[in-house]
Amino acid sequence: MSVRYVLGCIVLGGLLNIPVCAQSVADSLADRMHTIDEVTVKARRMPVSVSSAQPVQSVGREQLEGLGLQSVADAVRRFAGATVRDYGGIGGLKTVSVRSLGAGHTAVSYDGVAVSNTQAGQIDIGRFSLDNVEELSLAVGQGSDLLQSARAYASAGILSIRTQQPVFVDGEKDAWLVRLRGGSFGYVTPSLRYARKLGGRTSVMVEGDYMRADGIYPFILKNGRTETTERRRNSDIYSWHVEGNLYHTFKDESCLTGKGYFYKSERGLPGAVKLYNLENQYRERLWDENFFTQLTYDKRFSQKLSLRTSAKYGHTWSRYEDRDVSYVSGRMVDINRQDEYYLTASLMYQPWRKLSLSLAQDGAVNTLRSNLPRCPFPVRYTSLTALNLQYKEWWMTLQGTLLNTFVTEEVKGDERPDDRQRLSPSVGVTFRPWQGQRLFVRFLYKHTFRVPTFNDMYYQRIGNKMLRSEKAVEYNAGITYDAPSFPFMDYLTLTVDGYINRVEDKIVAIPAAYVWKMSNYGRVHISGLDAVARAGFPLWGESALHLSGTYTFQRAIDRTDPSKKNYGDQIPYTPRHTGSVGVRLQLPWVDVGYTAMMVSRRYSQAQNIAMNEIPGYAEHTLTLARGFQLNTVACRLQGELVNFTDEQYEVIRYYPMPGRSWRVTLQMEF
Amino acid sequence: MKLRSLYISALCLMAVGVGFTSCSEEDSLPIVPPVNNLSDVAYILHEGNMGDNNASLGCLDLSDYTYQGNWYLAQNGEKLGDLAYDMKAYDGSLYIVVGGSKYIVKIDKEGRKFYQFTSEQGEPRSMVIADGKIYVTSYSGQVHCLDAVSLAYEQSVQVAEQGIRLEGIAERDGKLYVAVAYKVIPATEPGAWDTYVYQKEVAVVDANTMTKDTVLTVGSNPSAMAALGSDVYLYSIGDYYMEGPVIQRIRTDYSVDTVAVANKMAVVGDKLFLVNAEVTYDPVTWAATTVNTFMAYDPITEALEGSFIGREAPAELASSTIYLLAGDPVTGEIYIGTTDYVNTGTIYRFSADGQYVGQFDSEGLNPSKMVFVN
């Protein structure tokens, strides 16, 4: 019985939103496993996804591994309401959009601090390794943590990536993890992690990985009634990733975490497949480097008052090359450098148990240096202030936020754009009709906007520094349920949310006669439904079955100009129906995982006509894993068969996705 | 036992997802015998947009004005490819330059012939066909010469240094007039800038020897070219900064005169039809307003005449982006195609004297060229 509990506990660890603090060094999975016999547990902790006013979904280590998910993007696309744009291959750009609002409205945070890209406005989630991820969560609105930074309130959705923290076996001071992974398309990734305890209060961890893939995969090219088998070429990638972490708990129980992160890659960009001209795949190449360092300090002054503060410096560099005879020296090179300086502090005050107040203040400086013609070397200063109030009764929770954004910009040699200031409110409320039941009804209203990116404003010729911000209003109503445990069922959670979003002043490039300019032009009406279900069942002996499923319905309709042919049509790359299932069977000698992802047809252009249609697809992945012990070394051998039905499909038109592939991982921890 | 059946039913539920499949657009295509019917029809070429392989060719039957938007695909079972830039009819055959897909195709009753350009030859842009030869401009600074019957490659001439992009081409009296448009000088050092240098040249090439004769100075960023009477006409885009668009006439003595300010031209009958799109920006929002002016230029009188379409023309033509302008050489009927670069185009039909007749959806993106095979 206790073994089953341990298993259940591990599984649930993935569902729980463990706060990002150094204290969780002591709260780690291994520690729980060792102390489990002394604990008597009467009730399971309620998942945040059920109690939160904001729709939150998360997936933990156990599930990421157990389902054989290939990358951060592969995991994120299974969240209800998320749409991942994937340009194919291991090195292809991958961006996430929540509830049809566009990637610019979705923030990405890495260990609690937001990742930014002021130039393009969207984050390539393909850059993050899944190997060291403890938990991924996607919140619509914002997370429910009152100590989060003001930036976390500023987006319509936030994807949080939380990395693993060191786990020490009893009495040990060192912990090693060695992993070797290989697979189809010349994919090889060795990785190494080393953690050390320095006294009782401090630990450090360094990790590094290298990835290489030649990325050559076959695909079926359809051209009218003919079909040919072609090869995706120039989609090789070489990347290096090094990360160092420091965790320290002071005598007053306040804690400090520090991180240094470095990523460097070189990759081919095969571009869209051009019919009759497959040679075109060889033209483009990209090199990039990304460095950031961040420090976070958490302090609880008393039961009533706590503080969290973070500082970050980030630098990105990229070099893009296009080789063609149409350039004087045979190639064009774009070099971009961005810097970010960021500070945030949040203070939470809880005058009495039912009421919490918090104030978060962020300041950021972003710069762009580029070799693009007439680049004005912009420097953007952003101040974000979020004031929050939370009131809790057993039968309801009310949370309100007021966010003030102020943006001012300096440009070289040109008139600077006007300052921007905006107040955006958000209100969330959750009702619990019956005290004994974990059934909740929730409502959320949120106003967000996206400040134009440097590219929107300054890109040669098409940039427009007069752009207003793109506004979005979101309404959500949902029901959540967490079933009590039964002998035949370990857990069951269900969440269903319906939503309406309005996007105004959408920033799009529109042509005026023959010249394009970025403009506040589009208007989109979005309505949809997200449903998530998870259940776990005990089987014979130590075996267990875990099921999960998500379903998304999205109706995202262009409402810009009634005289246009696409008025009332679904916006591009937005499927009406998206679904995923995950099945994990834990057996004494092997763990089996199966997951499927299903997406209905989409359109590559604004107009919903047959010419622009991209067919729907279903992709299936099968995983087998076995953990075993070699003396003191905990080993895990895992094999994955990805897209085993060899489905030929595209997410972005003429960017073919790989067909059937495999991956094998051997991991050793000691 | 009960438990196990619960699991089985749950697994069955999951399996429903496995059956999730769908059908594609090509399955719904009508199967048409591959006969390229080339008489008394007009072909409408759609440029498409970059990377989407959505260039297409529609066919308008001039006997009853029925239109088939995906004619090329239906006839040949294959798509045209990526970015179709130019189309010409010559000696009973139809020729199309597909730039992104880097080939030229000849279509006639016998079927299709292709010539695929190499990456050294560069992306083809525009063509002119004369005396059994096809002359194609390219983004490599070269003009390539092919045999019009066999599409066999013959020779090339480097009209401008590599990297200077060539656009329009016209032929008169054995001379080729080539628009030398612009070049991009890439930055070599971080912090330096790529520079767009707009050229102001039309190169004159002897078609027989494929050698460059001379260079004429014209408006900034020369683009489309057309031959009418004994002369050649050029549309230059301008540098997007100080110089605006201009239409120039190049006479046989190589003198260059500015005849109008416009950014679209087409030879219709014995006149040059012109459209000038004047774009004004709101000083606060930078929202653009476009006002089109339609004009005709008479090469004999050298006079700029008023609008070639009547007042009852649909109001949206005054502000739409005019992407196609053509005239039926037999009936004199005028065709205007518009685009918003996102939706399929609309073709407006006018009688020879400019009376509005009707309009239809072109069923393709960015209708740019129309060729009549009467």
Write up what this structure looks like.
The complex is a heterodimer of chains A (670) and B (374). Chain A is 6% helix and 55% strand. Chain A is mainly beta. Chain A folds into two domains: 467 residues, Maltoporin, Chain A; 100 residues, TonB-dependent receptor, plug domain (Ferric Hydroxamate Uptake Protein, Chain A, domain 1, Beta Complex). With 374 residues, chain B is mainly beta. Chain B has a domain of 113 residues. Helix content of chain B is 6%, strand content 52%. Chain B is built from two helices and 28 strands. Chain B has a four-stranded antiparallel sheet with strand order 3-2-1-28. In chain B, strands 4-5-6-7 form a four-stranded antiparallel sheet, with no helix packed on it. Chain B has a four-stranded antiparallel sheet with strand order 8-9-10-11, with no helix packed on it. The N terminus of chain B is likely disordered. Classes of the chains: A mainly beta (670), B mainly beta (374). At the A-B interface, strand 17, strand 24, strand 25, strand 26 and strand 27 of A face helix 1, strand 13, strand 21, strand 22 and strand 27 of B.
